[in-house]
Structures are given as structure tokens and as C-alpha cells.
Amino acid sequence: MKKMTVVMMLIFSIIGNLCAQTASNKVFDIAQGSINRVFSIELDKGEKMKFELNELADLDRIDNIDSVIRLFLQDIEPLRDSLADELKTRRIDYLVDAAPGNKVRLQQFSPTGNSYLVNNGAVAALKLEQDTVYIIIQAPGAALVPFKKQANGVHYFRVSFYLNSLGNLTGYMGGRLQESVRDIKKHADGKWARGKAGIMYSRSQPAISSNFTKGQTTQGDYLNVRLSADIQNYKNVFVPSLSFGFTVVTNRYNVKREYSLMSESHFSFAKTDSGKLQTFRNTFISLGYYHTKTGDDKSNFWYSPSISIGWLARQRGTLYDKNTFRIGFGRVMIFGDKVKLEPVVYFNDFFKGVTPGIRLSF
User: Fold this and answer.
1) pTM of the prediction?
2) E strand segments, 187-336
3) pLDDT range class, residue 214, cuts 50, 70, 90
4) pLDDT at position 134, please?
5) Exposure pattern of 99-119 as b/e (b: 16+ CB <10 Å)?
6) Count of CB atoms within 10 A of residue 38's CB?
7) Which of 20, 114, 225, 324 sits 20 to 30 Å CA-CA off 209?
8) pLDDT tens-digit profile of 270-312?
């Protein structure tokens, strides 16, 4: 009986802790999918600042980043005694503009072992893990949702600091960070340079990086008009084609999704009885869905999950049978996204005459 009582107390204790953590996370975490733009700023000695935004207009809420830091330092001043142990790693979540006042969550973690710096016989304790500060700011207007008008309400964005010591934060005040904010606002939708591992860097300030995709002009939702030249093999014939259509692009939390509607003109050639060469144009109507994580294009050769289906809407000549369909699975991207290689399967009349192929688009 005593053992059962101890077990039940342990279970209820674990459940209570989980419930408390869940409630705390609801207060201090940002809803998944509400972050569209991420900018990182390299500071001194491996320290970093990060902006996680729902929309670029959120930067207007921190037009004076020094005042945000000053307010944070003022609100954690009563916790000074709790922060006295410099060797502990700290995480501080700070929620601004939350009625009836700003909220603070302090978590501290002791190192699993002791580290020391030895210099000319002098030994000093060494801290290896960085302190993190997450400043969560409330902004008017519900979070942007694809194809929906922004509703009334509020959304949140986050300013984060990764510091070797919490005390280093005051050293960045005085306008330095504000210059970076202005640079981001000015160049956010401009041209960015590709660095190592596919990371995009600001051309004006190389210390600023982003989840920006090369060649992309916006990180929101937009409609593209697309024209491409293609070639595909069908049975023992290479068939050139031209494609024209529209692509709806959505960007949510570093994930880009494309929904396409295309008209494809496939050209085939055959000689008439008189020996004259004749051209036949077959028209496919295709629908496609393509999924890409921002930064996936880390090299000149990468894979994008996708699916597409095409239907032969206009049949001419003898190359294609009537009621021909084409299904594509996945795309291999070459030279960024300039060349696309897609394995396809052709069939007609409910999977009769199945023929595999490869489709190459430029």
C-alpha cells in the first residue's frame, strides 16, 4: 500500500509539472507558423541577436531597440540577487505589453561539470554555455494567414539575444543595434549575397543574415506568372514543349509552398504522305504542388518534395493516345532553381499503357 501511495504521488507530481510547463509555454511561446521572416545579427565574440517577425512592419514596433533593452533591464532589476551566480546558464523570457503588466520567466541551469581557464598558473572558473534572452512583443493585427485578410486582434514577434554573459547586453546600447534595424528595414526585400551553407547575407552589412532565399523578392504570399522551356522523353521520342501558367507561392515559418496551374504545348513532328514535315501541337493542362524549406538549396543540386498531374486536353497527331495522363513525383533542382528534373509516368484510360519518363524544365 505504501509503495502504491509513493507511485501515485510521483505520477501526480509529474503530471502537475507537465501541466505547469504547458501553461507557461502558452504564455511565453509564439504560435508555430506565425513567423515568416528571420534576421540574425552577429555581435562581438560569438554573440548574436535575432529578429523573428510575422511581417516586416513589426520592425516599426522596435524603431528604438535601445528603449526595449532599457525596459527589459529595468524590469529584471528586482531579480538581480537571483542572477548573482555567473557560472549558471540563464534563459529569460520577457513578454512586453501583456495586460496587466510585462511578464518575466527566469530559468537557470547549473553546468554538468566544472570548466576552468588556466593562464600562467592562475586558475579561473570558465562558463561555456551562452545566456539567452527572448523578448516577445505584442503587435496589433492577427497573424498573417495565406489568402486571408488580416483580422483584428494581436500577434507576437520575438527579439532574441545569445550572450556569453547577461551583463554584456548593456554594452550594445547606444545606437549600434538601431543601425542594424534600419539596414534590415531598408534592404529586407533587396538583393542578398549567398554565403557558406546557403545562408543569405546583407550586401550592405555582412554581419546580418536571413532566411531569405536567393532570387526571391518577397517572403510573403504572392502570385507568379511562369514561362518555361521543357523537354521530356515519351516512349522512344524526345518531346520539346513550352509551358505557361500561374503559381501561387506561400511562405510560412521557413517553408515555401507553390501551387501551380500550367498549360503545356508539346510539339511532335511527322512526315506526310508527300514527304513534307508536319508539326503537331498537343496541349496538357497540369496542376502541381511543390514544397521547399528555406535554405534547402544549399548547393547546386538538391531535392524538393512535390507532386504534379497533367491531362492531355488537346490531342493532335499520333504521338499521344487520347485520355493520356502524366503524374510526376518529386523534383531535383540544379543550379539553384534554374533547372528542374522531374521523374514522370504517362498512362491512359485508367493506367493502361504505363510509360516512365523524365521531364527537364528550364
Assistant:
1) 0.53
2) 192-194, 200-202, 208-210, 222-234, 237-252, 255-271, 277-293, 301-314, 324-334
3) very low
4) 92
5) eeebeeeeeeeeeeeeeeeee
6) 19
7) 225
8) 887 777 888 899 999 999 998 876 544 445 666 778 899 999 9
